[in-house]
């Protein structure tokens, strides 16, 4: 995934440098405040660690081996800003000193792996581990998915950057001047290896290192070490519940928006004059077809929702129907989350109890 | 035991360490590029790399590659080592990616082997890609090989790189070497205590455990380094001692390199 010099056009490279510069500036601004503290050596050492961990040849299930990037664990330990700086430094050392990845393409490589990778890893870890206990198995799964998701997102971005080159940069005869493969070739070619091998390596390395740190250095992960604290279920932030309640109360505002959302028309709308006028106006004055497309008519009735158009049949008031639908929707999501917690939490409790008895 | 993953990891560490030593040796060999002010060299060589990225003609890229070979010879950089470490690796990687383009790009057919047909635009695209990678990698490798790392970092100030980033890069490079050596020793000591064969899952566990210990050591070392910095008077401000001085031959060198880059950009369109 380290794009070498010569694969991307200079204008793509310049754009990626500019895109990365904004994030680097913001990350440095945040880190500068901590320069009086331990941030300087900690960032440098984490970058050195990421570099060294990239050399680890990890055996994977199935007999193959793969290399991890270390972006998942860097983002979890240092946060997204620290993570993006540390991985950018490791990539810069690789490009400048070891010739792994180009100098002109360093901006693109850092944007894909360090910046988007760190933000994705940190976001996924926070989202999946939200509300879980320090010893929860869900945190381990969150770390693995953070590694897997971040490296695949980075690979997808690299594939898009490769794939747009032949569209934008070709000579008079149409021959590509830089990376020669269009998106429909570049994306599957790049993702095949990352979804199967590199992603698994990153997931195993992130989850493995996370598990090691949780056992031996929980303070580095911001997790309390003492048994009473680590086993306490963290309270879900009150502001989150407050915000959720407010959004549910505001749900009826949705009925103020007139007409149907673009692309969400029902087959009967194509026969209705007023609806047809709305479709035409919303589609850049391109007239809607005289009849609903055959495929749309055939597939539209495959599934009938229990609460069509957020309006339960037994409720007369549209506003109250919206409000009820919001409660119903939030209830289903909370129910699924509770079920997942129940399935993973019970095992964690049993394991914690066994560990304490030991 | 199937020692391949551990053995290849150890090989990776020793290659990284030996490369560090080789580059330090080359940086101090008295040659043409070693004698130029690092700032002049950085600006001039980067301009040449950018001109290689911009070039759309095979002839221009061949000339840029020849310039790189000439500079390497004049700077006492071993051409054999350059061929083995840079040209061969870059060729293998870029050719593997470029080769299918010879057959997938539509256009007039040049050769046909059964159902496989190489087209003229396809061969042109693949040649451009391989030559561009070779030229850019040669020129950027020469810059790094002929400049001591600390001087190269200090020269980055010319390109407005913040002083904190330069300090971070310097520290990162220093501790890459130390951590690679530490990891190498940990793997060797672990491997010397293994009798028989390890299953894949056991090898994985060993790797991750070593990585975990290395991460713990990294964080502890970070704190130690910080205490040492404080003891030496660090107050949160990073300063660089730059004693570079541009002489007339440095101005001449940067002018020549920039002129060559400009000519390559014009000729390569």
| Structural class assignment of chain B | mainly alpha
Task: Indicate the CATH architecture of the domain at 10-231 in chain A.
Answer: Orthogonal Bundle
Order of helices and strands of chain A: HHEEHHHHHHHHHH
Instruction: Classify the beta-strand content of chain A into a percent band.
Output: under 5%
- Outline the low-pLDDT stretches of chain B: none
CATH fold type of the domain at 10-231 in chain A: Arp2/3 complex 21 kDa subunit ARPC3
Residue share in helices of chain B?
over 70%
Shape of chain B: flat
For the termini of chain B, the CA-CA separation is: 56 Å
The tally of beta strands of chain B, per DSSP, is 2
Task: Note the gap between the termini of chain A.
Answer: 46 Å
Q: Give the H and E element order of chain B.
A: HHHHEEHHHHH
Helix and strand topology:
The complex is a heterodimer of chains A (358) and B (269).
Chain A: H1 10-32, H2 39-53, E1 58-59, E2 65-66, H3 71-98, H4 106-129, H5 137-163, H6 165-168, H7 183-216, H8 227-231, H9 238-250, H10 273-282, H11 294-300, H12 318-357
Antiparallel strand pairs in A: 1-2
Helix pairs in contact in A: 1-3, 1-4, 2-3, 3-4, 3-5, 4-5, 5-7
Chain B: H1 4-27, H2 38-54, H3 58-74, H4 79-104, E1 109-113, E2 116-119, H5 120-145, H6 149-155, H7 163-191, H8 200-231, H9 248-267
Antiparallel strand pairs in B: 1-2
């Amino acid at each position: 995934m380290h794009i070498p010099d010569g694969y991307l056009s200079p204008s793509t490279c310049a754009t990626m440098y500019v895109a990365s510069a904004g994030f680097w500036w913001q990350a440095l601004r945040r880190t500068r405040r901590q320069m009086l503290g331990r941030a300087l050596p900690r960032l440098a050492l984490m970058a050195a660690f990421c570099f060294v961990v990239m050399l680890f040849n990890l055996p994977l299930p199935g007999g193959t081996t793969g290399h991890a990037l270390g972006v998942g664990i860097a983002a979890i330990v240092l946060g997204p800003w620290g993570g993006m700086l540390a991985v950018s430094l490791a990539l810069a050392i690789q490009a400048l000193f070891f010739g792994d990845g180009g100098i002109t393409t360093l901006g693109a490589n850092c944007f894909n792996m360090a910046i988007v990778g760190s933000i994705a890893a940190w976001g996924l870890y926070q989202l999946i581990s939200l509300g879980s206990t320090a010893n929860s198995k869900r945190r381990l799964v969150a770390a693995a998915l953070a590694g897997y998701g971040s490296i695949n997102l980075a690979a997808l971005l690299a594939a898009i950057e490769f794939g747009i080159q032949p569209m934008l940069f070709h000579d008079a005869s149409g021959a590509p001047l830089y990376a020669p493969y269009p998106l429909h070739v570049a994306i599957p070619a790049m993702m095949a290896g990352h979804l199967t091998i590199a992603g698994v390596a990153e997931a195993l390395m992130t989850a493995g290192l996370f598990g090691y740190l949780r056992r031996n250095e929980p303070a580095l992960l911001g997790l309390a070490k003492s048994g009473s604290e680590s086993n306490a279920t963290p309270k879900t932030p009150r502001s989150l519940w407050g915000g959720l309640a407010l959004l549910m109360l505001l749900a009826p505002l949705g009925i103020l928006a007139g007409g149907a959302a673009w692309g969400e028309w029902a087959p009967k709308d194509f026969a209705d004059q007023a609806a047809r006028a709305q479709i035409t106006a919303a589609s850049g004055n391109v007239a809607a077809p005289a009849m609903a497309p055959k495929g749309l008519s055939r597939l539209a009735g495959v599934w009938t929702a229990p609460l069509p158009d957020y309006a339960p049949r037994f409720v007369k008031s549209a506003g109250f129907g919206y409000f009820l639908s919001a409660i119903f929707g939030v209830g289903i999501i909370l129910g699924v989350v509770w079920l997942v917690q129940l399935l993973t939490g019970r095992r964690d409790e049993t394991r914690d109890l066994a560990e304490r008895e030991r | 035991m199937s020692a391949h993953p551990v053995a290849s990891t150890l090989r990776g560490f020793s290659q990284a360490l030996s490369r560090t030593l080789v580059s330090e040796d080359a940086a101090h060999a008295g040659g043409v590029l070693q004698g130029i002010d690092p700032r002049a060299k950085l600006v001039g060589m980067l301009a040449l790399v950018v001109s290689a990225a911009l070039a759309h003609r095979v002839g221009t890229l061949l000339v840029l590659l020849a310039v790189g070979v000439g500079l390497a010879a004049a700077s006492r950089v071993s051409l054999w080592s350059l061929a083995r470490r840079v040209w061969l690796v870059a060729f293998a990687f870029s050719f593997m990616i470029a080769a299918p383009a010879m057959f997938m790009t539509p256009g007039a057919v040049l050769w046909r082997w059964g159902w496989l047909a190489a087209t003229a635009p396809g061969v042109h695209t693949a040649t451009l890609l391989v030559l561009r990678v070779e030229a850019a990698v040669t020129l950027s490798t020469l810059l790094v090989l002929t400049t001591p790392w600390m001087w190269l970092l200090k020269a980055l100030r010319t390109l407005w790189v913040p002083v904190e980033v330069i300090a971070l890069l310097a520290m990162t490079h220093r501790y890459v070497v130390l951590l690679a050596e530490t990891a190498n020793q940990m793997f060797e000591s672990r491997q010397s205590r293994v009798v028989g064969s390890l299953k894949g899952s056991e090898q994985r566990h060993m790797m991750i455990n070593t990585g975990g210990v290395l991460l713990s050591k990294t964080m502890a070392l970070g704190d130690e380094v910080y205490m040492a910095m404080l003891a030496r008077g660090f107050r949160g401000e990073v300063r660089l001692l730059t004693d570079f001085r541009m002489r007339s031959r440095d101005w001449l060198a940067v002018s020549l390199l920039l002129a060559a880059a400009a000519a390559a950009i014009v000729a390569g369109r």
